[in-house]
């Protein structure tokens, strides 16, 4: 749409002020400008539209017939602009009062509740929508725009995302009491762990991806004994005697303390991992998302 002869909104407002006050001087005072500056703005508008707008006389300034008609049209334009501005402000306020978060299961279940309590204390009017899913699904949700901020636990971050480390986690091998690994005096080694069929999460989970990368030097991992979609299901299967599993220490801390599970030391491999926040690359994190990112980065995991 060509708008080469349409004055800017400030100039239109100035024209209306000249019409209502009948004076370039009073219009200048109302807009915080000098009278020569107002005169220059009016002349600039006249050159732009191609016809005279203001007639100066001994009793003040009046609009020409064409200027008066332009002023009538300008009122509708300025009203529409005010409506647009109010709508934009409303959307900005709504965006700043709501945050959509996607998080991997470990983060969603064991870290985010504490972070969100702190966020609620700082921003009591903020509504939070939290979706718990595996890390691959978190990445997809953030890239689609379904979440402003995501938290993942995998070893790598997809292209198109900015990232920040917010916490560290440790994976542990767990077995039920009475399992042969639980009675060993020496740690199992990484090669034996890689060759053992484990109760595992689905392939897209961050926990499984981190374990696969950690054990990559020891050849392909054995096929899963069971493949389950939630950490709780894996933990329950291990407790019931299905077999060993590798899970976050955050997820099994209570079970280890209560004796429902036993941690098995592993030699030859580092099973620590980084937990990261992710958001669209090139996008500025603002509002409650920025505050949640700060809280996550300063909290103790």
TrEMBL record:
PROSITE patterns: HTH_LYSR. Residues 7-64 form the HTH lysR-type domain. Keywords: DNA-binding, Transcription, Transcription regulation. InterPro entries: LysR_HTH_N, LysR_subst-bd, WH-like_DNA-bd_sf, WH_DNA-bd_sf. PANTHER family: HTH-TYPE TRANSCRIPTIONAL REGULATOR, HTH-TYPE TRANSCRIPTIONAL REGULATOR CYSL. Belongs to the LysR transcriptional regulatory family. This is LysR family transcriptional regulator. It comes from Micromonospora sonneratiae.
